[in-house]
Amino acid sequence: MATHSEDLRRRIVADINAGAPGTKLGSERELADRYRTSRSSLRQVLAALEEAGLVDRVIGRAGGIFISHAQVQRSLGDVVGVPAFLASQGYVAGTRVLSTKICAADATSQKALGLAADDFVIEIQRVRLADGSPISLESAQFPADAFPGLLEQQLGGSLYEILESQYGLVTARADERIEAVNATGEEANLLGIKPNSALLLITRITYDQHDTPCEFSRDLFRGDRTRLAVTAQGRGVGVAPAVAAASVALQSQDRRAV
């Protein structure tokens, strides 16, 4: 059974997720009355939410508690699952599984995963949550022959952890392409945003310890909740890198043709 403070936190987070950044939730007195709690209990919960970047507390006559919706940061230098980088930033990670299936690999998946025309893939579609708020929509495909029984696993956490613990696979590296796109109506509905809102589309091919492609995924991150970070290594003037670590290119306006 949830404690009073945890129940209070969940109720406030639900109201935060239903609002827009900058919206005033109310004053401490108003919120204490609304949630039927003491102001001391409310302050403890608000302090934790403020530290997590979900609310701002403003002092003064026009002050109060305002929705913040801080951005989550995704590093481009690490191959980690969403739960890991959310937890490292103090968020409670959550997942809503939308669909799972085994289907024939299309031409794009065949090329990405090195499959034959008659091979099948496991496809898993999920919405990722940070403190109960949707931040990304992901569609991941895996070679069906390589991971028998994958759909029988608990799919609410890190798929990389499942691959390592159940199949002995270690994710060694990933090639990613990043594009700025606009949300379709369906994507906007799943992410709780307006149609045509800005999204970051990350298309990824992940390789295992044997340099074999093991995952092909397309992740859509909310543009208003996400920022990307990368650490670049300097090599000195006039010294060409052996391998290009990152690149930026203009993409076709029709991302569905990728």
Keywords summarizing the entry:
258 residues, alpha+beta, Arc Repressor Mutant, subunit A, Chorismate lyase, 2 domains, six-stranded antiparallel β-sheet, three-stranded antiparallel β-sheet, 7 helices, 25% helix, elongated
Kindly state the percentage of residues in helix. Answer: 25-40%
- CATH architecture annotation of the largest domain: 3-Layer(aba) Sandwich
Number of helices: 7
Q: How much β-strand is present in the residues?
A: 25-35%
- Low-confidence stretches are 244-258
The largest beta-sheet arranges its strands as 5-6-7-10-9-8
Helix and strand content put the structural class at: alpha+beta
Could you walk me through the main structural features you see in this protein, from its secondary elements to its overall organization?
The protein is an alpha+beta fold. The protein folds into two domains: 4-67, Winged helix-like DNA-binding domain superfamily/Winged helix DNA-binding domain (Arc Repressor Mutant, subunit A); 72-230, Chorismate lyase (3-Layer(aba) Sandwich), CATH 3.40.1410.10. 25% of the residues lie in helices and 33% in strands. The chain is built from seven helices and eleven strands. The protein has helices at 4-18, 28-35, 39-51, 82-87, 107-113, 159-167, 185-191; strands at residues 24-26, 55-58, 64-67, 72-75, 93-104, 120-130, 133-143, 171-182, 198-208, 213-222, 226-229. The strands form three sheets. A six-stranded antiparallel beta sheet has the order 5-6-7-10-9-8. It starts with a helix and ends in a 29-residue tail after the last strand.
